[in-house]
Amino acid sequence: MPTNAQKKIMQEWKLFKDLPETIFVRAYETRMDLLRAAIFGARGTPYHDGLFFFDIAFPADYPAKPPLLLLSIQALVLNERPYFNEPGNAGWAGRTYGEKKSLAYSEEVFVLSCKTMLCVLRRPPKNFEQLVTQHFKDSAEFILNACDAYRKGLAGVGLFNGVLKGTKAEVSVKFKGAVNQVYGELMVALSKTGASVGQWNGEKCCSEVEEDYVSGINIEEEESEIKDDSCLSCFRAA
């Protein structure tokens, strides 16, 4: 007979039918105390089009005690300017120092988010394989064009609106190099979802990628596993 906690959890399952389209949750009949949630990174943020997984565990005395959310980092706030959510940083918003730090922070977040995409594409969590493939197949064009816009300074990080034109802004050498490196890997990984990546990147864009990789790097051979510390949130199925 189900315990009181299990009965309450089964009631919670009914709420899954009303979740936003950007959130998917999977429950396990044999482990009713566990859930796994997948959340799409929102556009307008440096996390856009990423796919982030969270494991949720219900304690034996639920709902007297809240469920536990298992994270692979200390803080993960999926909004447009995550720097200002760090302790002590909110007061710097709108000030020159704070805005510079926020830009650098968002650049780093975007690169890590791209590496997380690679991690998820190469090792999709069990029972989420179809979701991963379809999401990245649908989002491939936007992801690659966003990378192109950011490395060329055509859009602020996280603010790409689908148009590859505009006034060029200065881009740091470090950020451009990091995006160049991950861009080619993303092209390879996204093409394996069935997305026709060559259709929207064009000959010029592809030649730029090849230029970035001529120094002894073969992107077809760079399919080794990404270190865990390169991922914002990557859960491997047990």
From TrEMBL:
MF-aspect GO terms: ubiquitin conjugating enzyme activity
Record Gene3D superfamilies: Ubiquitin Conjugating Enzyme
Stored PROSITE patterns: UBC_2
Lineage: Eukaryota, Viridiplantae, Streptophyta, Embryophyta, Tracheophyta
PANTHER family tied to this protein: (E3-INDEPENDENT) E2 UBIQUITIN-CONJUGATING ENZYME, UBIQUITIN-CONJUGATING ENZYME FAMILY PROTEIN
One Pfam family named in its UniProt record: UQ_con
Keywords for the protein's UniProt record, in alphabetical order: Transferase, Ubl conjugation pathway
Organism field: Chenopodium quinoa (Quinoa)
Protein name as annotated: UBC core domain-containing protein
Domain UBC core: 4-155
